[in-house]
Amino acid sequence: MSKIIRIGTRDSELALYQANIVKTQLEALGHKTTLVPVKSTGDLVLDKPLYELGITGIFTRTLDIAMLNDDIDIAVHSLKDVPTVLPKGIVQAAVLKRGNVNDTLVFKNNEEFLGSKNAVIATGSLRRRAQWLNRFPTHTIVDLRGNVNSRLQKLEDNDWNGAIFAAAGIGRIGIRPEESFNLDWMIPAPAQGAIMITALEADEFTRTACAELNHEETEICTTIEREFLNKLEGGCTAPIGALAYIKDEEINFKGVLLSEDGSKRIDVTRVKKLGEHSDMAQFCADFVIERGGKRLMDKIKSNKQTNVFSTKSFTEDQRLLFHEKAVAESSDFIKISLNRIHPRFLKNEIQNVIITSKNAVESLTTNYSAIELQFKNIYCVGRRTKRLVEKKIGKVTHTENNAKKLAEYLVEYIDGTEVTYFCSDLRLDDLPNILEENNIKVTEVEAYQTKFDGFKVADTIESAMFYSPSTVESFVQKNKTEVIAFCIGETTANEARKHFSDVRIAKVPTVESVIELVNTHYAQ
């Protein structure tokens, strides 16, 4: 049976329209698909301008996390919303043929206000705001957020002269008003008008399927625009525009960087033969930087203080998942020391084995080869522990999100009346107590030791991220102040509730889901 490709998308009308384009094209190639709508932080927070939220990739992070958590196979995005650096393991699988690249002004009554000193224009984009004020410095800009339909309704309900939209957006869902025209003078956002598909790098089947949808000319142009954006270190929080197009075997490029109020503007244009354009983005970015762009970018970037602390060190790719309102630091608040496991525990095949952490897996595989680990039934806690067990030891019989749920499952379904539990010296009592109360003998083998290694964090810390009861205990040894506790699971949360009043639990027990909790909080 062929794989059903799960298409992740935001649940707005435009996002669903774009996802259905991908769905239709994949199914035309013979693939089976299903849509998985996901509400993003950007859709939930409608009372602040995007540039005030300071969030790069606000509309994409939730889908990134869903993909890393194996809830979806691909994600469909407006490419202009996608950060220029993708999380590790996620790749651009395809870019569809580009639509209208322009920004469009939708106006009320008439266009006479364009010649007047006073007018009110609505937009949530800092790039559009800056370019409009550069051209019409006496006009007033008001914030406009929400999906396309709600923004059009807000324009109708308010005493504004007009509002700015992406032409592709209002065109795709067929709601472009007659009272509108394209702003040919306004340089669009990098990759505006293009639909992009991301997939897991390791998912060869899905990447191959999506590659058939790729439009090479659009890919070339949007790649140059996004490289220009990346070189300037900008995102949706910086007023940067870029547009590349191919004509007569030449690539034409124009880019712009402005101050937030539009009073300063640096433009760049360049033409290169197709195939000789590899340095185009770098050249144009350097041109802008050398003409005052660095000073402009430095001014845009505000000084930020750390407000989130993680009791487990991040990988660089996990760090990229945070939006800019959550300024995070991380350090390992517990240190793990692997024990030598005596051969007497493993001399015969063990019928039932419990493994509740990746540390136990590392201890077992450091001491013995997979062939020496003769386990009939392996029960574990957590998706990632399961994946590591199956990669290094063997097939997992059953997994649960926490130790208490696993114990309750074993009481009902265990094959036999004995288990061997490879655990830490600081393990919780829930699992062995529940099993022994139900006449299941538990042989505990101390596979590793957990040592507290916490320290006093900065006074600016408002929230902390916890991944085990031990990380909570280590944190509170050195820090007595109240913080918001973002926890990886219920067991960790139970320990956190002993010390903090505001405790929140991730949807699934992964670091990425804890980061999603943080993102949701700091976007409010």
Automatic annotation (TrEMBL):
EC numbers for this chain: 2.5.1.61
Highest taxon of source: Bacteria
Keywords (A to Z) from UniProt: Transferase
Keyword Transferase: yes
Top-level class of the enzyme under EC nomenclature: transferase
Name of this chain's protein: Hydroxymethylbilane synthase
Source species: Pseudotamlana agarivorans
Encoding gene per record: hemC
